[in-house]
Amino acid sequence: MSIPLAKIPSIDLLRGFVAVGRRMSITLAAQDLFLTQSAVSRQINGLELALGMKLFERAHRAIHFTPEGERLFLIADTAMQQLQDTIGTLQASMAAHHPVTLTASISFVGLWLLPRLPSFQQQHPQVEVRLSANNNIVDLRQEGLDIAIRYCAEQSMPAGARRLFGETVFPVAHPSLGMTRLDDPSIITRSVLLEFEGDHSPWWSWETWLDMQGWSGVKPKGVIRFNLFDQMIHAAIAGQGIALGRSQFIRPMLNDARLVALPTPHPGPKSNKVFCLLQCDQAPSKETQALIDWIVAEAQLTDELPASE
């Protein structure tokens, strides 16, 4: 004879019953369930009340099954063990397919990482990667992130960070503007300058660049300012003006002539900043380690490339 599913006692009551039956001790069962003894006792009383029968006989410092309790335990213990095994297998499977989550600036993801990522996917098709493009500094563990790429002065790298590559900044423009060099202030007066305002370091300042060429006070035809580096680069590719580009991000665009480097009479300000990698766990999963190793290898190739043509 069977009863409706709705009339089966709650899983909490049955779990407490099985825990006591396995240990034959309310004290030890309470430890297994991380509950108080009184809470486990209430679960047993609640199950007996729900079923309308006694399941345990209580003696001084000892308990044992009633015939009804022993019969129920044999079935409930088997069912509970099957649940434990199945849920454990499902959770292990989910953990095995946990995506590797990486956070980095919007420009790093869009201009450096995404163009290279297909090669990682070809090498590691089983690794799922989740990207969080964000210009804010976040706590890896609190946000559930595996890897972070940070941009900072080399001497200020966070503890445990691994240097990836530095940066070299110089003027660039689309070939349609007809420029091959930036060697005369008259070029500035008839050009639009694209300026990145997301970082106030001197190497991103056109005013500083012009001062170092001896062109202080020279006014451009116009200025367009951007808070995102990748937007400025896309504007330069569209022929909207002259930008200060980061060689390590725009090398493919220089190689295929979407952009051309514009040498200046004198060097501009040099950057002291680098991109570095932080990992949440010192002993990461094999999937996370695979992505870390690949990024480090790609970064080494980036660092070895000549800065400009």
From TrEMBL:
Q: Name one Pfam family in it.
A: LysR_substrate
Instruction: Supply the InterPro entries for this chain.
Output: LysR-type_TF_proteobact-type, LysR_HTH_N, LysR_subst-bd, WH-like_DNA-bd_sf, WH_DNA-bd_sf
* UniProt GO molecular function: DNA-binding transcription factor activity; sequence-specific DNA binding
Q: Could you tell me which SUPFAM superfamilies the record lists for this protein?
A: Periplasmic binding protein-like II (SSF53850), Winged helix' DNA-binding domain (SSF46785)
Q: Which domain of life is it from?
A: Bacteria
Biological process annotations from GO: DNA-templated transcription
Q: Which residues form the HTH lysR-type domain?
A: 9-66
Q: Which UniProt keywords apply?
A: DNA-binding, Transcription, Transcription regulation
Family named by the database record: Belongs to the LysR transcriptional regulatory family.
The record ties this protein, via PANTHER family, to:
GLYCINE CLEAVAGE SYSTEM TRANSCRIPTIONAL ACTIVATOR, HTH-TYPE TRANSCRIPTIONAL REGULATOR
Task: Provide the protein name.
Answer: LysR family transcriptional regulator
Please report the organism this UniProt entry assigns to the protein. Answer: Zoogloea oleivorans
Q: What is the lineage of its organism?
A: Bacteria, Pseudomonadati, Pseudomonadota, Betaproteobacteria, Rhodocyclales
